[in-house]
């Protein structure tokens, strides 16, 4: 922290005044809107206008470096602004905004060249550039470094081909940060490079993925000889894994901004459901309700316990965060299943268009998202087993070999070693 | 499912598979709009030619089964239907045909039954959407009209596969205990309201009955016999639905197993990891146990063995729980791809979840088993 | 268990550990015959010097806790006790001391309470051995004797840790609802019958009451307040027992984890297999959740927060189920060696199973939670 | 089958007559006795006397070769005799008899030299020699070929040292069939040899293992430079794995002789327990009872299904038997746990010495035996996964290396491959 930096409380007062003068109080009707419901370009444009206002006022990118258009302050200042602005309408870019201002903006600021940062970060903070990730691939999900999208150097251009998937809100974004393999003759973590690609570049096709729950917030992309230049590289060639690690840290952090409060009321949704279907006196339904609530309550206190452990440890091991993720991955689908059990046939079929009555089924369809996305339950179990508990490692067949050879061997897998 | 199937049974199964694959392939399963009333009528009529609705009806009444065990024959068809996520009022029509054959009066047996067997109309069983320990008769009250007929009022929600021009078997409460009647779906006072559903391969309706007058010759059985008949209907429905569910489980498992062999991650097929391999082994055990118990239920129930209803409840309970475990485990093996609309995973997840919840969920059948066992 | 423990708390915990390891090491835990009445009295008296029985008693009545939250202090001791499979009437004595401090008359507070705090005598809570949704008062009937006293008749089975010369808190049914009284274990009409038990580290008795006359000054509370007091006692007992259970879980898990690192099969440490690694990861999650919920319960219950009883029931339910899962999983990891008497595995299996079943099993506490929540 | 062999039904009639003339009808009181309850030398001696009578009558070893004292008939003849003798007192050596006449006798008959067979098989069939296995080791359980007991050649003697465990009834046996490693410089399956060892040989210490359920049917053994000769080798040196495979087939078969009947009565033990503790009306207890019974019923029909599959297949894959074993390994402990839940505190503590009241706790302690012994649940899952479902193999680190090297590598495990 530098000596001339404004004190957080002074900053808070200053921000309060600016907010009152410039932002509109949040109407009640918008309070229920949640991140992820931004689905149209119109909503994005509306957010851009508001973001520009913040930027011009000096309240965009509060903790980003001043040289790139930020304010150069600390996360504590940022938090103070958030608290003051809580009752006002602020720019809502949905999930694409979270990704842009969070994992992507931070990764760029830490790893990209100064020229790149000057070109893009102010545009991001102004709301002019929304970004998405071209990261996961159909053949590289849990195996985060198993990227097969290929970038080939051709003079001072790079030509990128491959396919990407699970990009949140890519159809709303202007730019993509894309991971590609630039060396196939080294182990998988060592031949990767990140590139910036305009979403409207020639050869880029973005398609929304229709999900089982009816939504379509994720996209898949087809990259067909997309051309970029040296200037579009983020970080160093073949050193993309270092950027990835930064990105993952911010990604994991991003989920934790909202602090839940201790759940005290007995699973209100399930109690209401049991009442609706006339089963509130049914011992089995009561057991299911209590079971769900106890798991909610235990998960909350687990989260607090882990946050304490990370905060109060001199050398915190972030691997313990896997406990919260695994708990969510195990108990979310279980809770959804308990809902279906309580609801019975009334949860299987409901009045057309009645979202409240259809909710248990929707929760059920969404139940496994958290057990799969951003590290499956199995990946968390490996992490807990090896990094937290210190169990001997799983044999690895792909860390020390050229990626080309890994692919060849995998296709001829016979389980024989040595 | 059954390695003991006779040659006649095998021939029927083969031709039934061809029929389903030609008439209702996956693209049609996925597209509810293509499955309109005309489609349903055509499907039903062809299915009837294969004998799908005659198996539980005695020859004297125009029916007949291949093996002498109609429940077993129907369960083998149901198994194939489940694997292909087939729509249509198969379970309902068979249950109602069986009930009319057992307890229907002359008019029902002369007019309604032949139409069901011939696939000219389908039937749905409007029982209460039970979960927990509810009674199948709940929701609709019956009062007598003095001439042996009934007046029915109330509603049944989540009734499976009510088709236009079809029949309803309504199970209702009366002061003397449960009563049952066969009512036309388009009879005066009957309202059929289509519902949204988790299960995209089936249709659900709410059936509203507003003082529906039922003549004496449409009433099934009498006060003394109805409770036992309802139990029997539940046993048949449970067995056939369990068999459909096992078919879906088997198909989904096969698809998942193949994926675990093909999908590469961390330089290995994912099926070489114990985390995946052991889940698939457990799931495969669940499939084998589900097949074994469902065949046992069909054999027992179809051979007039007193243990039939208990076996049927056991099958429904075990299969229902196992199927949801299976669907959850398969989803986990598929990972993200299983979250996409285009992948078939969710169709099976939806279908087996509705299999598990209809005609009594696992908890309901466990309690029913206790009651059947006299405790 | 608690990384927030104060320095005073840490000092008490350290000296308590030394006491347990010197006075009741594993060899003594394994040998019930070495734990005779003289041993129990000596153990209790030393434990009392460490303040084990004063934490739930206000300073005005001769008690006192280190942190101001007596339930939390006692839970931290309980956690250490569980890890070392300690015997002795820790939970019972604390629950009864707390009850007397809250609702006892002058004589109980002047005569019985100081003896409990000083470790001169222990106390056991004779509640009904509830499973399912039974009432703690069941088994013993109370009638009034006209002078404000009671006459108790009936029996309570599986009463935990009745020690010679100790006291019993009997919860009984009366026409006006539950009543409670403090009775000497050797009072006329009281019969204490030792029982065999799954849990080798604890003692269980059947308590028979044959017209036991209780004077008015030994009755706790009145008709209006007893039900709430019983709920409070259950919450305290549940929290302390959950804490003992978490201690046992943690110790057993550590032992199993080490084994998975050391044991070689198929050319690898078995902990490198996902089948073992993932079970241990899940088990470790269960331990962490159990610690988190138990500390939450202790903090809440000990700070006069209305949510205390609900939190206690949640902790008892989650920990009970998790502990049995854990013990089963650890047994499986140990394999054959865990089936031998010499190995400690079975002592933990036995202990946590009794932890899970006493003072309300998981199902009982889930139902209780619903009732506390007003549904 | 040879042409001159007596017809099964003729044999049955002949046997019936001999049995009626020579054996005592079984009293009711003995009917409840189960295999495994033979725990004393007195019981063994009693059985020997009766076995001698069978042997002299020509009814011992009915399907063993005649040249070794058997009758040279088929398993069908053997079965006919068993059926005829069902109502009579026959020799009961307990588990040691099952092992001796089953896995061990058959393995000897198939693999040992004619001299060895002549020396031992008649003695076995006469009841003079009871045998046990010295097979599992403290460091070799699931890993059946991971034997570390060492046999070293010294002229025409072999000197054996090591320790063995889980030998059923070894303290009652006269001889042991012992597996030892005779070559440490080849892969683990290729350096093993079976030896016959008299249980009272110098250097053999046999100790009963006290079990958690209070019983002590298993033993552990310490072998301290036990000397045997070339004549004591069963099969060939370093080819012990072939003998082992024969033994495992008979061992697995041995468990299947008793055909259970379809369980129709709702879990009678649990119903009785629920009545005893006053919970027969309790919905949770009823659910638990039904759950247990349904699993029993499904397991029975699974067993029948698998037996059918093995019988009616031209080329049956015995790997499917793993389904029955896994089902038992999963549902037996679950059933025991349901018993404890139904019983509640009354299952935790009971009147001293009341075996009926203590039964749920005993079942609970015994519950995991089947999930651990003779192939753990995990081993069955691997077998089903790889052999039945055809999933790609688990990487193997010990099949192609010298066993010495395997042990060295395992101690320095780092999970790195290639």
Topology summary:
The complex is a heterotetramer, with 2 copies of chain A (418 residues) and 2 copies of chain B (375 residues).
Chain A: H1 8-22, H2 28-31, H3 41-57, H4 75-84, H5 94-111, H6 114-126, E1 131-134, E2 150-154, E3 157-168, E4 175-181, E5 192-198, E6 204-208, E7 218-229, E8 233-234, H7 240-254, H8 268-276, H9 283-312, H10 321-343, H11 345-348, E9 349-351, H12 355-366, H13 369-372, H14 377-388, H15 403-411
Parallel strand pairs in A: 1-4
Antiparallel strand pairs in A: 2-3, 3-7, 4-5, 5-8, 6-7
Chain B: H1 7-23, H2 26-30, H3 37-49, H4 70-83, H5 90-103, H6 106-117, E1 123-126, E2 140-144, E3 150-160, E4 167-174, E5 177-184, E6 190-197, E7 204-214, E8 219-220, H7 226-262, E9 264-265, E10 268-269, H8 274-301, H9 308-334, H10 345-357, H11 362-372
Parallel strand pairs in B: 1-4
Antiparallel strand pairs in B: 2-3, 3-7, 4-5, 5-8, 6-7, 9-10
Helix pairs in contact in B: 1-4, 4-7, 4-8, 5-6, 5-7, 7-8, 7-9, 7-10, 8-9, 9-10, 9-11
